[in-house]
């Protein structure tokens, strides 16, 4: 049922329910395919999705999912109420234009975002989705933009910690946080803090030695839930090479991409 | 088979509006417009996608970045796009007056660097083989002659607005740099008044080209935090609009490399110029055909999982009177015995402190 990526993440059987997934996109790479694959996987399992987008527009996700799996995200949002969105980048634009009357007090007059208010919006949307869907996946893409907006690292971590409490407050909620990581930057510290409390960590990076026509980059998966010390898989990270195409993603064991194509 | 019996119906009309100087991408139907350098368009996937930010990391002296900036504006004038020109370093009005003149396609072929072929007497079989094409061939965009200025009458057809910080006090307001705040406000009003958002319905749809020259230089203040905040807000303004923005940033003046990477992440396309001027490479025979190296750091992935992959990432640029071109980097052929070879020959008889030619000691 699952995509190759969900098999690699170990969520092909039970799904993402109750898990906290940290996706670290190292500078130069693009982890958009991880988010798109997780969305496809969740939607096919009839899970609800609460998408907090800070980098791309909703239209981008709609087009990508249409190409990947023929799922109509607009329809799922408007008719089936399976998808709820908080488009922060679009709402920032609207806020910049509204001079007196603003739809909600997410931003102050200096365009600084209120993380408390944002969390209450996310919580309300999750609550709404849980009425019609037994499981909901909260996706934040990409958390490093909170730092770009002038939110302090402490406030971003508080927000993510509050979002993490949703996993225990409601049953059937999962959380995915994508962070664009730049070394010697606060985003690195943010990613480390998120990874510290996450159940599964996915690191996406480019090839160290340059460009390849067969491989787009490297994906490293660390599953901390499999913490049985007697197990052979304890604290083992799985390494994959991946090739991103317009409609699909192919995963390979390192060195086997040429053999399979 | 009669057409009346088929269930096929030709799709009438298109969702992509026709705007002069634009074309839809063959990959994702995204509307593209030219940078003003046709070879650059090809390497970045056809052109700049509408609604995106294009970052040029300037060369050390900024000469070639300034030239690319002028080509971008000149292409806007030729395509009759609206322009919003921003600079603190130079007078934007003067910059528009100095835009280069476009070259007719016919004249371009006459001035091409591929000269008339010599008659081959010995290797005659190779006479009709096509020469190696390092520069892609395209009909989209124009070439410009930098020795001649554009006709002022052509500029009067275009709605051009300017922004420089002459009247702005550079003191900080609410922790934010006043320059960035004022510039953002001017761009915001320009987009709103010109009805450039996709939800607007103007009489005639057009594209707004925003050009910001030397953003983040010393004149903009030293704090990179404001620059990053400005870029994020600008990104939010441009999404879902018929605008493009080209920024040149002197990244060698930014203290922290992490801030440069953050700027690259906030822009959709990021390229870098490295001029040979003033460096050892200027006199290196390997690079004698080029004026600098061209790096593609990021390409846009709009409405798609993957971005365009150019044929090569080893690129160089050269400037001629009638053409600025970006080409795949090729080393020149080894046609004659080099100095290295001569040294190798003399190496076997050379003494420790002697000159191999004079056979006498240097001291």
Automatic annotation (TrEMBL), chain A:
Origin: domain of life: Eukaryota
Pfam families attached to this UniProt entry: ELP6
Pathway linked to the protein: tRNA modification; 5-methoxycarbonylmethyl-2-thiouridine-tRNA biosynthesis
A GO CC term attached to the entry: elongator holoenzyme complex
CDD domains for this protein: Elp6
InterPro entries: ELP6, P-loop_NTPase
One GO biological process term: tRNA wobble uridine modification
Entry's family note: Belongs to the ELP6 family.
Record's protein name: Elongator complex protein 6
Organism from which the protein derives: Gryllus longicercus
Automatic annotation (TrEMBL), chain B:
Name the record gives this protein: Elongator complex protein 4
Domain of life: Eukaryota
Keywords: Cytoplasm, Nucleus, tRNA processing
InterPro entries linked to this entry: Elongator_complex_protein_4, P-loop_NTPase
UniProt key word Cytoplasm: yes
Pathway: tRNA modification; 5-methoxycarbonylmethyl-2-thiouridine-tRNA biosynthesis
Record organism: Gryllus longicercus
CC per GO annotation: cytoplasm; elongator holoenzyme complex; transcription elongation factor complex
Lineage: Eukaryota, Metazoa, Ecdysozoa, Arthropoda, Hexapoda
One of the Pfam families matching this protein, by short name: PAXNEB
Keyword tRNA processing: yes
Main location: cytoplasm
Similarity comment text for this entry: Belongs to the ELP4 family.
Protein's GO biological process: tRNA wobble uridine modification
Compartments it resides in: Cytoplasm; Nucleus
């Amino acid at each position: 049922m699952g995509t190759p990526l969900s098999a690699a993440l170990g969520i092909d059987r039970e799904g993402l329910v109750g898990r906290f997934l940290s996706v670290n996109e190292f500078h130069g790479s693009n982890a958009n395919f991880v988010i798109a694959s997780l969305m496809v996987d969740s939607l096919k399992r009839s899970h609800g999705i609460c998408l907090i987008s800070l980098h791309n527009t909703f239209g981008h996700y709609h087009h990508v999912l249409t190409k990947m799996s023929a799922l109509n995200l607009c329809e799922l949002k408007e008719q089936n109420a399976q998808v709820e969105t908080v488009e922060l980048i679009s709402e920032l634009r609207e806020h910049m234009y509204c001079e007196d009357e603003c739809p909600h007090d997410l931003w102050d007059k200096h365009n600084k975002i209120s993380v408390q208010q944002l969390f209450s919006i996310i919580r309300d949307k999750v609550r709404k989705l849980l009425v019609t869907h037994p499981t909901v996946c909260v996706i934040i893409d990409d958390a490093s933009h909170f730092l770009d907006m002038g939110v302090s690292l402490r406030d971003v971590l508080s927000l993510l910690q509050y979002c993490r409490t949703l996993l225990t407050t409601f049953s059937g909620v999962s959380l995915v946080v994508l962070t664009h990581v730049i070394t010697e930057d606060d985003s690195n510290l943010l990613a480390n803090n998120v990874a510290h409390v996450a159940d599964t960590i996915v690191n996406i990076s480019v090839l160290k030695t340059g460009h390849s026509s067969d491989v787009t980059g490297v994906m490293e998966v660390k599953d901390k839930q499999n913490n049985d010390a007697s197990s052979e898989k304890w604290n083992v990270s799985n390494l994959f090479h991946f090739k991103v195409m317009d409609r699909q993603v192919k995963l390979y064991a390192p060195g086997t991409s040429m053999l399979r194509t | 088979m009669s057409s009346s019996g088929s269930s096929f119906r030709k799709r009438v009309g298109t969702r992509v509006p026709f705007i002069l100087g634009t074309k839809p991408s063959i990959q994702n139907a995204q509307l593209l417009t030219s940078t003003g350098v046709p070879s650059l368009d090809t390497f970045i996937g056809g052109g700049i996608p509408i609604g995106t930010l294009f970052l040029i990391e300037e060369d050390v002296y900024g000469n070639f970045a300034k030239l690319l900036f002028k080509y971008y504006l000149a292409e806007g004038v030729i395509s009759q796009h609206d322009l919003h020109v921003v600079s603190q370093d130079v007078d934007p009005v003067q910059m528009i007056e100095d835009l280069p003149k476009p070259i007719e396609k016919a004249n371009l072929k006459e001035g091409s660097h591929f000269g008339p072929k010599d008659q081959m007497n010995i290797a005659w079989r190779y006479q009709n083989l096509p020469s190696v094409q390092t520069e892609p061939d395209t009909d989209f965009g124009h070439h410009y002659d930098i020795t001649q200025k554009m006709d002022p009458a052509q500029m009067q057809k275009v709605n051009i607005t300017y922004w420089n910080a002459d009247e702005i006090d550079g003191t900080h307001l609410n922790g934010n740099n006043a320059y960035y705040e004022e510039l953002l406000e001017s761009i915001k009003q320009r987009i709103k008044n010109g009805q450039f958002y996709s939800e607007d319905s103007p009489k005639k749809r057009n594209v707004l080209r925003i050009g910001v020259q030397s953003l983040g230089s010393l004149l903009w203040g030293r704090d990179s935090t404001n620059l990053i905040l400005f870029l994020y807000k600008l990104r939010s303004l441009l999404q879902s609009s018929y605008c493009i923005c080209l920024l040149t940033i002197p990244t060698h003046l930014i203290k922290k490399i992490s801030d440069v990477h953050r700027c690259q992440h906030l822009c959709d396309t990021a390229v870098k110029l490295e001029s040979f001027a003033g460096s050892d490479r200027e006199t290196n025979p390997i690079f004698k055909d080029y004026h600098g190296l061209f790096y593609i750091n990021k390409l846009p992935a709009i409405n798609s999982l993957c971005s365009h992959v150019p044929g090569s990432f080893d690129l160089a640029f050269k400037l001629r009177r009638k053409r600025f071109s970006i080409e795949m980097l090729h080393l020149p052929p080894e046609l004659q015995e080099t100095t290295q070879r001569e040294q190798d020959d003399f190496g076997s008889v050379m003494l420790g402190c002697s000159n191999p030619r004079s056979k006498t000691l240097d001291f």
